[in-house]
């Protein structure tokens, strides 16, 4: 059913070039690589509402790199929104906000952009900048931008009369960032440990059937002070930004260790994969996937057999 509003809202006609002339610019995505260089993620303009990041830049790893999101809007004639018979009175101000949310990352927040929209015939630039921290992004991250009544000093009939009321029927702009690759499924962090090993595992979970498979439960720690660290993360080594041989070995060993540890923990608690159902996104759920993927006999295979099957499975995937 069409939405019925008791006050005027901004629609496509208000935004067209004959009225307010609202232009939504293509989002800019950048990150800092291992050489401390700013890298722009290039993608076609038509993909701006659904951006699968690793499809366009397989050197970006959410466990090793943060992500800077920049969004710009241009309003050519803001005065079209203001007046006795328009969206709101000239004495008031319109704001732009963004709702960020992700079921996969278990995160949501609403932020107000710093620039107000006010009654002027001059062009207004509305800018939004946000830094997503590394080791945080996973799955799908949604951003929805919308107009709202920021200040309300004068009201007229059929106009919003309370600050915070939403002023647009549809979102001004919305996009979905999709994170693929090892970063979204394997928690990798960096530490500084001069003289220490190149990498090590950290087991942090209490109950593998419940605890989420993320950096709060399990981590591969890469030692940035190790002599071979640069070779491991050098973006020129391979197409995906890591040294293939080294990372394959690390990943295979880490997967085997996590499978073995999870099986031991579950056996100690009297649980197993036949009679217990792991929670979605849990350590055990991921391990269950690996068990099926690599054809592991969880009751009989020991650590060495598990590693050999994982390593062989990785080679077959590459072939």
Low-pLDDT regions = 235-242
Number of separate helices? 7
How would you sum up the major sheet? 5 strands, antiparallel
Give the rounded overall mean pLDDT. Answer: 86
Silhouette = elongated
Instruction: Tell me the fraction of residues in β-strands, as a range.
Output: 25-35%
First-last Cα distance: 52 Å
Per DSSP E runs of 2 or more residues, the count of β-strands stands at: 13
How do the helices and strands follow one another from N- to C-terminus?
HEEEEHEEEEEEHEEEHHHH
Number of domains: 2
| Proportion of helical residues | 10-25%
What is the rounded Rg? 25 Å
Describe this protein's structure.
With 319 residues, the chain is an alpha+beta fold. The protein has two domains: 12-178, no CATH class; 188-318, no CATH class. It is 22% helix and 26% strand. The protein is built from seven helices and 13 strands. The strands form three sheets. Strands 1, 2, 3, 5 and 8 form a five-stranded antiparallel beta sheet that branches. Strands 4-10-9-6-7 form a five-stranded mixed beta sheet. It has a three-stranded mixed beta sheet with strand order 11-13-12, covered by helices on one side. Helix 5 (244-268) crosses helix 6 (283-293). The termini are far apart. The relative contact order is 0.12.
């Amino acid at each position: 059913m069409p939405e019925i509003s008791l006050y005027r809202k901004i629609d496509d006609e208000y935004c067209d070039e004959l009225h307010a002339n609202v232009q939504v610019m293509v989002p800019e995505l950048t990150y800092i690589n291992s050489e401390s260089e700013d890298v722009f993620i290039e993608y076609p303009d038509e993909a701006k509402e659904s951006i699968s990041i690793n499809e366009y830049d397989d050197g970006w790893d959410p466990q090793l790199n943060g992500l800077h999101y920049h969004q710009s809007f241009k309003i050519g004639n803001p005065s079209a929104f203001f007046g006795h018979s328009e969206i709101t009175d000239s004495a008031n101000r319109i704001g732009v906000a963004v709702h960020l949310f992700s079921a996969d990352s278990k995160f949501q927040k609403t932020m107000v952009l710093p620039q107000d929209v006010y009654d002027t015939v001059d062009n207004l630039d509305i800018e939004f900048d946000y830094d997503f921290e590394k080791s945080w992004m996973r799955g799908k991250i949604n951003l929805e931008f919308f107009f709202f009544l920021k200040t309300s000093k004068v009201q007229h009939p059929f106009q919003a009369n309370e600050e915070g009321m939403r002023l647009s029927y549809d979102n001004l702009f919305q996009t979905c960032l999709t994170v693929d690759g090892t970063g979204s499924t394997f928690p990798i962090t960096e530490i500084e440990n001069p003289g220490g090993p190149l990498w090590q595992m950290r087991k942090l979970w209490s109950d593998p059937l419940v605890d989420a498979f993320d950096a709060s439960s399990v981590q591969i720690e890469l030692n940035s002070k190790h002599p071979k660290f640069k070779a491991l993360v050098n973006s020129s080594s391979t197409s995906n930004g890591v040294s293939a041989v080294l990372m394959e070995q690390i990943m295979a060993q880490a997967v085997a260790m996590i499978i073995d540890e999870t099986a031991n923990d579950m056996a100690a608690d009297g649980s197993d994969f036949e009679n217990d159902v792991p929670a979605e996104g849990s350590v055990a759920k991921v391990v269950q996937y690996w068990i099926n993927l690599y054809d592991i006999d969880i009751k009989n295979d020991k650590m060495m057999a598990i590693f050999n099957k994982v390593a062989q499975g990785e080679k077959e995937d590459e072939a």
